[in-house]
Automatic annotation (TrEMBL):
Domain of life: Eukaryota
Protein name, as recorded: Uncharacterized protein
Length: 104
């Protein structure tokens, strides 16, 4: 399914007229799937619900075990990026403070 027209060269009303139905269809499908999921959860027997939760938990555990190194590296990268961003913001603030000083 094509969500966005190729090579759009127009704007305004024509763009809205062309692209809004695509977004509306996606939104409608999301609403339908949410409604279906809620309905399925309500009709579950309590034993089925607990078995589904347990199987989901076991699947998560298997994924974490299989991708332990990948997840660890992603966590390290996230922390480094966050630290770098905060340091960069502090450096920028310091630079602005120094540039604002009178050099006499």
């Amino acid at each position: 399914m094509k969500f966005w027209p190729e090579n759009i060269t127009y704007t305004g009303k024509k763009l809205k007229k062309t692209c809004y139905p695509l977004y509306r269809d996606i939104y409608d499908q999301q609403q339908k799937s949410r409604k279906h999921a809620r309905k399925c959860k309500l009709t579950l027997i309590p034993d089925e619900a607990t078995s589904l939760k347990d199987s989901h938990w076991e699947a998560q555990t298997r994924y974490r075990e299989a991708n332990c190194e990948k997840l660890r590296q992603a966590a390290v990268q996230y922390r480094l990026h966050k630290k770098c961003c905060t340091e960069q913001a502090a450096d920028e603030a310091e630079y602005q403070r120094i540039m604002g000083m009178d050099m006499e």
